[in-house]
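Lecture notes, unit on protein representations.

Consider one protein chain, 319 amino acids long.
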Amino acid sequence: MANPSMEFLTCWGFGIQDGQGQKKTSDLTWLPLNAASDFNLNPNLELTDQADGFSDDRLMHSRGIWMEGNGGVSCQPVAGSLANLLEWVFDRDDYCQGKWATVVYSDGRRVYQYPDVKVASARFSLSAGAPLGLELRLLGIGEPFDSPIISPGLIQDGAPYTFDETKVQVDWDSSGTVHSNAETTLKSLELEVDNQLQGGEEGLRLCESLYPQTGYNNGAGVYTGSFVRDYIDSTTESQDPFELWIKQIGAAYSDDYNGMLKVTLSRNGVALVLSMPNTRFRTSRQPATGSRRGTINQTVEFQALTNAAGDPAVEYDIL
C-alpha cells in the first residue's frame, strides 16, 4: 500500500529579500500553518477562440502566470520571527512599496520555491476563547526555481498568542489618550490590512516572459476593522463608541474626536503591540434581537487614519 502525504509534514517558510529579483535561499523563518493554505501557481489558461477548421475547442493560451492565495500563519511570541513577519506585512519604502520575500512550502513530497512574493492583505483576528488568528493573502510574480534546493528548516516550536494574553486599551471618551486600564467589554476584534497591491495582470508587460514584471503597491495601506462588545448601561460608562461616532460625524474634516485603540499581546517577556492612534468609526450598531432574554451587543466598524502631523495610521512594536 502506498504511503500517504501527511498534513503534519507540511512546512512553510519565508525570507525577506533585499529587493525584487534577489531570491532568499538561507536564514528563512519557518512557521506553522494553522489554517488552510491555497497559495499556488496560477497559469490563467484560456481557450483560444478562432475559426481554424475545427468544430471543437483545440488550443489554449495563458493570460500570464503568477502565484496567489491565502494562508493562516501561527503568530507566536518569538521576537525574531515576529519582527520578520510584521516587516513583511506593514513596512514600506519612501515610494510606498512593500517588501518582497521568498516563500518556500513543502508538502512532504516536493518543495515549492517562490521568489518575489508580497503580502496583498492581512487579517488579524482576536476572539474570546480563541488564539490570535493571522491570515495572509499573498501574490508572487517571480518564476518558481529549483536551484539551489532549499531544505525545509526546523519549524518554530510554540503556539500563537491567545485571548487571555491580550490587553486592549481605548479612548472613546475624547480624553486624547488611551486609558491605562484594560477595556474589558470587548468580545472580538479584527484588523484588516489592505496593502493596495496591484493584481498579477497589471504587472504584465510586452516582453519575452509570461510572468509579471512589476508588483506595485498603489499607495499606503488601508486599515479597517471592527469590534464587538457589551453594550453598557450609561450609569457605568460615561461615553460609549456610539456617542463618539456622533461627535465624529459632526467634525468630519477634523482630527477632533478621533478614537484610539491599542492592542498588546504578551507572553514570556515578548509583547506584540498594535496601535491605532487615530481611528474613525464608520458605524456603530446595537440592534435589539426581539427576545425577552439576552443582552445587547454593540458592533463598531472603524478605519485607522493618519492625522494632520502625518503619523502612521497603524504602528507596530515588539517589546
